[in-house]
Structures are given as structure tokens and as C-alpha cells.
């Protein structure tokens, strides 16, 4: 034996040139700890997975034939933001892979700039009580968000901002990730794409670090959607959409669904709808239709699911039309219209009508979108509601600007200014003035 080769240390997992023994392994929709255990048992490697119990509800599928075990393990770990390192006892320890938070320490204040501070009566409470208040504020925010009107999204934005701030202070990273995700969703509702992206970048990294897979994946898919709107990275968008759809199928196909909280169900409905929107954007109408069908069903099971039902109904109609399925298209939109007409109040009926128009605009049918905004404004003549009218005028202005009707858009933005001129909160005046400045 060569003296030099004899003195070389034996390579092991993690070393640059290490190639493990080849294994064949199949595990269909198994829990993640079972997948990892199966790979490492076949490799003959002793290991510890201290947080295995927390990952029992996460499923994965691995089918490999004659592949190095370390390559197989690396793929699985990367998919779930995990890492494997050697302990002093020579055991491979599986743990979360921490990623630097995208916006960096101290940047949360910048993200929340311009939003009201957390109410003083909450800031003086102890940590446990503040955490309880944050949960209440988060649920309040969801309630406003599902009312489907821009002015209610403004109120939701404030609640999500407060919840985010409190969760950050009490170091509840998992819940902070969820609150940040919804903060981004509210920003996007209000047309603030840059701040939505910042919130989702932070939510993704917090979710990964805290093991909140749902928030991390929602953020990943949302970021991919923003990139797709800008024509970037279709392959990354396809992977994100497929991951979102697969996650939804996994969490809803298990026999015991009682472990999913109401918030989980609401977030899962948002995720599968968002995946459908990505598939639509990529031109994969068949898969988009499947996702929207699942989204429609998911929202139908929720008490406050009207916004989501209407949204998925519009997308289903658009998909079916593009696939030449006119009967399906008609059935889909009639489902949405039935829910809109049967809303629990006249205010919500008008808000859903305007929301329906907003979804048509996103799907590319600007003419139909404008028609629905006008229908909503006509309905408002019978209802004195300045906040709702502000939201409808705001939606109208955006659609008019997208159509190139700049004079009409200017009038609508000016209507927003008139409707809010006496309000102490300058939010809408600022938004309208900025929008007017952007018009040619």
C-alpha cells in the first residue's frame, strides 16, 4: 500500500469528495422522519433527529435506484431546509438549516414605516399577554382581509403589522412568519408590490428558520408569482406552483385533518389558489383548473370563504374559456355570482362585485373588470358607505389606468381624495396623490 494513501484520513459525509455507498429506496408519501430514517438505515449511519416529532405531519416521496446515499439525503434535506452535521459522538444530527433573514436585523421598522404603532394599552402588557393580543389582532386582520374591499384591506394591514411587531418582540418566530405573510398579502391587495415582496422575503426566511413550512412555502410561491408577473424565471415559477399544489394535496388527503387549525385551512386555501394563478400565468390551463377546483372547494368549507369562492370561480371561468369548455365556464361563474348575490349584507355583496372585477383584471379581461366596477358603483347609490366607495373608486382607477384611460383614472383617483379629505388617517390621500403623480 502507498504510504501517502495510507496516511490520508477516511472521508465521511460532508467532505467535498465523499461519495457514499449506493442504495435503492422507495417510500411513497411517507412522513419525513421515516424517509430520513430509511435512507440512513440503508447507509448504515447512526443518527439523531431531535425534532423528528415536529416533522411527523410533513410527507415526502423518495424513489431511487442505485444512487449514492449522501446524494439522496442531500436532496431530501434541501427540500425541507434541513441540514446534517456530525456530533462529537460520531452521530449524524439532523436539524433545521438557519438562513439569514432577507431584510436583515433592525429592518422590520422600515417595512412597517408609516403604519400606526401598536396601541399603548397592549405595549405595557407582559410577554404572554402581548402574544395573546397578537393572536387576536391577527384573527381580526383576517376578518377584514376576507371582506374583499381595499379599505378593509387597509384595516387588515394595520392589524397584521401590529401582530408582526408583537410576535417579533416576544420572539415567536413561527407566528411572526405567518403574520408577515399576511402583511405582504394585504400590501399586494393595496397595490404595494415592493413592500409585499419585502414582507414575503422576511416571512420565507422566518418560516424556514422556525420550521413553519406553510408560511415559508406560501411566501416562496408568492415571490415566484411576482417574478412571473415581471417575466422572470418560468422554471422557478413552475417548481413553486407544483410545490404549493403538492403541499395542499398532502395536507388535505390525510385521514386525520383535525390537527389543521382554522387559520391553517384558510392559508392552505390561499396557497392552492395562488398555485393556480401561477399555473395560469405559465399557460398550463389544465393544472390551473385543477388547482382552482381545489381552491373553490376549500373556500366553500370556510365560514368566511366568499372572497375565495368568487376569486376561484372567476379563474375557473377564464381557464375553461381558454380550453374551449363553455359549459364549465358558465357553471363556474354562476357559482361565483350565486355566492356574491347571497352575501350576508348589501355591503359585502357590493365589495364582492368589485373584487370579482379586480380578479378579472388580473386574469387579463380588463373590459369585464371595468364593467363590474361600474356595476358596483351603481349599486353604491343605494348605500351610503364612504369607505366602501373609496375602495371601489380605487379599484376602478387602477383598471382605467391599465386600459390607458388616463383621464378617467385621474377622475377616479381624485374621487378617492374627495371621499377621504376629512379623515384623520392620511393613508388614502397619500396613495391617491402618489398614483396621480405616476399618471402620464
Automatic annotation (TrEMBL):
Which InterPro entries does the record associate with it?
TPR-like_helical_dom_sf (IPR011990), TPR_rpt (IPR019734)
Q: Where is the signal peptide?
A: none
Q: Which PANTHER family does the record match to this protein?
A: RAPSYN-RELATED (PTHR10098), TETRATRICOPEPTIDE REPEAT PROTEIN 28 (PTHR10098:SF108)
Protein's recorded name: Tetratricopeptide repeat protein
Protein source organism: Chloracidobacterium thermophilum (strain B)
Q: What is the lineage of its organism?
A: Bacteria, Pseudomonadati, Acidobacteriota, Terriglobia, Terriglobales
Amino acid at each position: 500500500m502507498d504510504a501517502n494513501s495510507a496516511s490520508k484520513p477516511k472521508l465521511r459525509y460532508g467532505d467535498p469528495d465523499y461519495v457514499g455507498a449506493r442504495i435503492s429506496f422507495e417510500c411513497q408519501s411517507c412522513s419525513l422522519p421515516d424517509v430520513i430514517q430509511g435512507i440512513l438505515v440503508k447507509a448504515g449511519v447512526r443518527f439523531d433527529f431531535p425534532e423528528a416529532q415536529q416533522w411527523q405531519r410533513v410527507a415526502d416521496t423518495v424513489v431511487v435506484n442505485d444512487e449514492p446515499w449522501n446524494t439522496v439525503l442531500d436532496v431530501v434535506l434541501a427540500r425541507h431546509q434541513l441540514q446534517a452535521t456530525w456530533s462529537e459522538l460520531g452521530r449524524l444530527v439532523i436539524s433545521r438549516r438557519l438562513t439569514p433573514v432577507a431584510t436583515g436585523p433592525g429592518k422590520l421598522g422600515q417595512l412597517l414605516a408609516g403604519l400606526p404603532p401598536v396601541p399603548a394599552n397592549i405595549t405595557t402588557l407582559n410577554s404572554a399577554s402581548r402574544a395573546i393580543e397578537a393572536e387576536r389582532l391577527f384573527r381580526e386582520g383576517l376578518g377584514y382581509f376576507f371582506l374583499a374591499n381595499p379599505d378593509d384591506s387597509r384595516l387588515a394591514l394595520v392589524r397584521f403589522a401590529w401582530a408582526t411587531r408583537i410576535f417579533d418582540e416576544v420572539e415567536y418566530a413561527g407566528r411572526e412568519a405567518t403574520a408577515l405573510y399576511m402583511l405582504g398579502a394585504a400590501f399586494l391587495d393595496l397595490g404595494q408590490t415592493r413592500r409585499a415582496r419585502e414582507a414575503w422575503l422576511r416571512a420565507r426566511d422566518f418560516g424556514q428558520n422556525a420550521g413553519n413550512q406553510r408560511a415559508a412555502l406560501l411566501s416562496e410561491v408568492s415571490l415566484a408569482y411576482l417574478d412571473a408577473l415581471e417575466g422572470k424565471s418560468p422554471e422557478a415559477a413552475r417548481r413553486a406552483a407544483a410545490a404549493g399544489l403538492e403541499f395542499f394535496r398532502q395536507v388535505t388527503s390525510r385521514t386525520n385533518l383535525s390537527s389543521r387549525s382554522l387559520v391553517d385551512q384558510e392559508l392552505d386555501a390561499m396557497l392552492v389558489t395562488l398555485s393556480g394563478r401561477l399555473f395560469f400565468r405559465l399557460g398550463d390551463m389544465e393544472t390551473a383548473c385543477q388547482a382552482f377546483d381545489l381552491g373553490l372547494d376549500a373556500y366553500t368549507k370556510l365560514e368566511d370563504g366568499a372572497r375565495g369562492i368568487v376569486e376561484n370561480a372567476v379563474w375557473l371561468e377564464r381557464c375553461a374559456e381558454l380550453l374551449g369548455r363553455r359549459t364549465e365556464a358558465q357553471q363556474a361563474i354562476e357559482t361565483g355570482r350565486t355566492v356574491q348575490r347571497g352575501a350576508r349584507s348589501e355591503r359585502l355583496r357590493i365589495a364582492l362585485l368589485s373584487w370579482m372585477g379586480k380578479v378579472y383584471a388580473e386574469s387579463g379581461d380588463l373590459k369585464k373588470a371595468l364593467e363590474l366596477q361600474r356595476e358596483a358603483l351603481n349599486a353604491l347609490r343605494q348605500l351610503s358607505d364612504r369607505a366602501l366607495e373609496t375602495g371601489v373608486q380605487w379599484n376602478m382607477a387602477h383598471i382605467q389606468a391599465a386600459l390607458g384611460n388616463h383621464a378617467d383614472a385621474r377622475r377616479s383617483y381624485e374621487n378617492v381624495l374627495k371621499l377621504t379629505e376629512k379623515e384623520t388617517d392620511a393613508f388614502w390621500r397619500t396613495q391617491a396623490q402618489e398614483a396621480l403623480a405616476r399618471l402620464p
